[in-house]
Structure formats: structure tokens, C-alpha cells
Specification:
8 strands; globular; alpha+beta
Length: 159
């Protein structure tokens, strides 16, 4: 059995309706459901090396994550979310695995996990890399992992 189809794109390669639906999923989960009032559109989505990864079903995007490149070359996974209707299907895990493939073998990958998801990220190969902190009223823990040499092609910066 194969996993869900994972889409990978830079913002510049997304059409307006797709970007709208991806941003709406992020807002629905983080701002509305988790009641975090913060600047969701922070300017990083359009960075040349940023990649948006998502799955979709007949109702639109079902899970999403954003992959960024930090100034030191470390890759950062963030904005991991799944639509309420699609939870429990392994979609976010498929996205994280694909993001690690996109990063490439041995690349340092970091994320700030909501603390209650620590064990879930550990199962995906991440380890705690610092003290717990609170962001937007939610406890988080910094984590670190490594990119993989999966079947996905390496997605470097756009030229």
C-alpha cells in the first residue's frame, strides 16, 4: 500500500486558489482551533528556498507543513497541521518524512514541537534539543533531526 500523495512547491509555483486554501487550513488550525492570535503570514512563506508540502482530498488541503532554510543552512519544519476531518490517517507523518527527504541526507533539520507531540516527533527521528518554552500560550520543545536519503529528489534553492 502506498502513502498519500504529497505535493511540494515554492510559493511562486502555487496558483492563488491553492495558496488561499493552504493558508486557510493553517489559520483554521492554529488561529481558530488553537486560539493563537499571532501573525500567521510572517513573510517567510515567499522566501526562495521555502517549500510548502501538503496532502489533499476531495474537500481540499487535508494536511500541511512549511519547510524553511535558516541563515546557517539548517532546515526548519513548521506550521505542521491537519484538518480536523483528516486526523488519524498518518498524513502529517507522511509530510514530515517527505520533508526530511527533500532536505537531503544528513542535513540538520529543526522544529519547535508542541510539547504534547514530543513522542510523536521522536518516532519520526527527532530528539529534544533544549528546554521547554511557551509560545502563544502553548508549551513547546525544540527538536533536532537529520534529513534522509529517501526516494524524493533533493529540492534546493530555485535558480
Amino acid at each position: 500500500m502506498t502513502g498519500p500523495s504529497v505535493h511540494v512547491a515554492a510559493l511562486i509555483d502555487l496558483d492563488a486558489p491553492t495558496w488561499h486554501d493552504l493558508a486557510r487550513l493553517r489559520v483554521d488550525v492554529f488561529v481558530v482551533e488553537q486560539q493563537c492570535a499571532y501573525a500567521e503570514l510572517d513573510g517567510r512563506d515567499a522566501e526562495p528556498t521555502a517549500r510548502h508540502l501538503w496532502t489533499a482530498d476531495e474537500r481540499g488541503p487535508s494536511a500541511y507543513l512549511r519547510l524553511l532554510t535558516e541563515p546557517d543552512g539548517t532546515r526548519r519544519i513548521g506550521r505542521v497541521c491537519t484538518a480536523g476531518r483528516a486526523r488519524g490517517r498518518g498524513l502529517s507523518a507522511a509530510l514530515v518524512r517527505r520533508a526530511l527527504d527533500v532536505c537531503g541526507d544528513g542535513t540538520t533539520v529543526v522544529l519547535d514541537a508542541q510539547s504534547h507531540l514530543r513522542a510523536w516527533y521522536e518516532r519520526l527521528g527527532f530528539a529534544v534539543d533544549g528546554a521547554e518554552f511557551v509560545e502563544d500560550g502553548i508549551p513547546h520543545v525544540p527538536m533536532r533531526g537529520r534529513g534522509t536519503a529517501g526516494s524524493a529528489e533533493h529540492e534546493g534553492p530555485r535558480s
